Amino acid sequence: MSLWAGMQKKSKWSPGPGVKILGVTLTVSDGWVVSAAGSAIGICPDCGWRSRSRHGWARRNLQDLPVQGKPVTVKLLLSRWRCAHRECARRTFTDRLPTVADPYARRTRRVGEIVGLLGHSAGGRPGERLMQRLGMPVSDNTILRQLKRDAVFAQRNSEIRVVGIDDWSWRRATSYGTIMVDLERRSVVDILDDRSVESAAKWLRDRPSIEVISRDRCGLYAQAAREGAPQAQQVADRFHLIQNLRSAIEEQMSLSGRATGRAILSEDAIVDAAAHRRRARLAHRQSRQEIFEKLHALREEGLSYSEIARRTGYERRSVAKWLKFEAPPDRRRAALKSTSPWYFETFLAQCWKDGNRCGRHLFHDVKQRGYTGNFANLERLLGAWRRAEREQADEVPRTTLKSEPVRDPETGHAISPVVAAALCIKPRGLLTERQAKKVDALKQGSNAFAQMRRLAMRFNGILRGKKSAPLDVWIDDAIDCELIPIMRFARVLRRDIDAVNNAIEQPWSNGKAEGQINRLKTLKRAMYGRAGPELLRARMLPSLHTK
Length: 547
Known about the structure:
Helix content: 40-55%
Number of domains: 5
Number of helices: 22
Radius of gyration: 35 Å
Low-confidence stretches: 1-6, 255-273, 396-402
Structural class: alpha/beta
Number of strands: 12
Mean pLDDT: 81
Strand content: 5-15%
Shape: elongated
Distance between the termini: 35 Å
C-alpha cells in the first residue's frame, strides 16, 4: 500500500528536470506508460531568447528505468517554438532536454549509462540477456553500438605522459598486436592491430606529450620509440632484465649447450652473410657432383632408368635428364629479386643484430618493405644464420659449454638447467631449506654456477639499489667471466645502457601493461575470438560511466 501510494506521486516518475508528468498508466503489453510534457516556456539555443509563441508539437518515446520488473515508457510531448528575436537566424526550435536524453535517442540518459556499462563489462549477448531480465529490453547490436560510441569519447582524454608498450597475440606465432597503457592512470589508452615499427612510431608521433616509454627488451619498440618519440626516455622493464639473465644462466647450465633465449645474443654473433653464401654454394655444388657420379655409376652397371629411380628415390624423368649430361650442370646465381630474402639482407641483418630473431615478426616487417616471397624461404635463411651461430659456439672449448651434471643431495637426481637457473637468481633469504642445499651442491659441483650466482646477486642488488653507477663495473666483470651466454647478455645491456639505467633509477615498469594483457586475453576468450580490433579496443578502454 505504501509503495503504491509513493508511485501515485507524479514527481516520482519524472525522468529528469524540466519534465512535467501528466499521468501514469499500467498496460498489459507495454508495462508502465508515463505521459509527460516539456516546459511551458521555450529558450532559443542560439540567442537565448525566451519564447511563448508555440509553433507546433513534437513527440518522443523514451525508455526509462523499470518499476516492479516492468518496463517504463515515457511518452514525452515537446513544444516547437518560434524565436521572436529579430537578429536571430533560427526561426523555430524544439525543446531540448540534455539532462534527460540525447537528441534522437530512444532511451533516457540513465538507461544509456546502464547500457554502456553492461556492454563494457559483459559484452553484447550477455548484456542483452541481463537487460531483458531487468525489464529494460535492448538488443545486443544496440549495446555494441553504444559501446563503440563511448570508446570514441574515451580516447579523447587528457595528455599522456608515461606510456607502457607491450605486444599481445591474436594468434600465437601468426599475428600480434600492440597495447598502449597509461602507467600513471593504470588504464589502456589504445590497441594497435599489429606490432610493426611504423604503426607504433606513428602512434607515438601523434602524442608529443609523452615523456617516458616503458618497454620490454624487444628491439621493435626500441626503434619505434627512437623514431616516434625521440624526446622521451626509454625504460627497460626490470622483469625482462631478470628473465633474460635467467635464460643466459639456463643456457650455460644446459648440458647440451642448447640456447634457450635467442634474444640475448650479441652483435658479435651476427653471421657473415657473404661467407655463408659461399659455403652454401660450395656444399650445393659438391652435392650435385655426388648425385651425378652415383647415377652414372649405376648406369654403367647396366641398370635401367626405372631401376635407378627405384634405388635412389629420384623420379625417372630426373634420372634421364641427369644421365644426358657429361658433367654436373653448374647453376649461376641469378640477380636478386623481391621474392628472395637475400634482397633484404641489410635490413634483416640489422634486425638480427638488434635481437629481433623471430621468423614471424621479421616476415611481417619485411613484407611491409616489399618482400613478395613466402615464409619458408625467409625461415630457411634464418635457419642458416642460426646454424652458423651454433658452429661458432662449437668452436669454444668444450669445457666451457659442458660439465658433469650436478645431482640433488637428497634424491640423487641430476638438477635440471631450468631449476638451476631459477635457484641462481633467487636470494639466499628467500630459499627454503631444501633449495639452499641444492644451491650449495651446485656451487660445489659447478664453478660456472658459483660464478654466475655471484654475478646474479650483484645484478639484483643493483636493480634494487636505485643507483646505476655500479652497472658499468658489473658489465665489465660479466664480459670478463668467459661464460659465453653471460658475456652476450652483458653486451646487450651495454648496447641498451640508457634504457637499463632508467630502469634502475626510475619507478616505471611494464607490470601494469602485463596485467592489462591478461585482462585482454580474458575478454578475447569470452568473445570466442569472433570480435574484431574495434570491439576489443572498446571493451579495453576505460568506461565513461564508472564513477
